[in-house]
């Protein structure tokens, strides 16, 4: 296992700690916390981080800093594989960074870069594992492995599984085999061909998902026939 694991009881955010340790010169490690006081999601959203979940950040020096989305993709493939293998449920990927089951979110991934003389990345994974319930405000959008399977899971066992899968895919990424990453990602997603709404930075688009491109972006055929390529946004499936 090339990733040393640093374990903490409580942190503001594992991504913060990962960045701090990267700045101090540590490389290739994972930071895990029992709880986070300021866990965050994409677009600065609050991430509910009670002690039953797995909150972890993988910290490394990316080979390519221009497209960190590949790191999010390999992390989501690693997590979906670990979930399917360990919990034996049909978890699916939703573009760009979510893992779903039964229409509810099980896991979100937030990759953050540190750009300077050298570039680094913290790949934050939030997996809902043993929660029995969620606060009212996210109760109808979030789920956990426990809610789905009625079983408890050992989070460190899960983490090791995720890191093993991540390591294999990271090698594919370092070998610049991006096509294989996209192909693998598509195996676990049923987004393509579906009608959807995409809330992108500037605009909200409605249409049919045509493909996930080799740079991790999404191509949508709008209801007026126009084709748009979207690099970042929130995807809402119509069904
Ligand atoms: C999202 O779906 O918006 C991404 C959620 C990412 C949450 C994880 S939990 C571990 C790491 N630390 C954070 O503060 N966020 C990520």
What does this structure look like?
The chain is an alpha+beta fold and 239 residues long. 27% of the residues lie in helices and 33% in strands. It contains five helices and twelve strands. Helix 2 (69-87) packs across helix 4 (155-174) and helix 2 packs across helix 5 (178-187). The longest helix has 20 residues, at 155-174. Bound molecules: biotin. Biotin (BTN) is lined by residues 13-15, 36, 39-42, 45, 47, 55-57, 97-98, 108-110, 124-126.
What is the element layout, followed by pairings?
Elements: E1 4-11, H1 14-23, E2 29-36, E3 54-60, H2 69-87, E4 92-94, E5 98-101, E6 104-114, E7 120-127, H3 145-149, H4 155-174, H5 178-187, E8 195-200, E9 204-212, E10 218-222, E11 227-230, E12 233-237
Parallel strand pairs: 1-2
Antiparallel strand pairs: 2-3, 3-7, 4-5, 5-6, 6-7, 8-9, 8-12, 9-10, 10-11
Helix pairs in contact: 2-4, 2-5
This protein binds biotin.
Biotin is lined by residues 13-15, 36, 39-42, 45, 47, 55-57, 97-98, 108-110, 124-126.
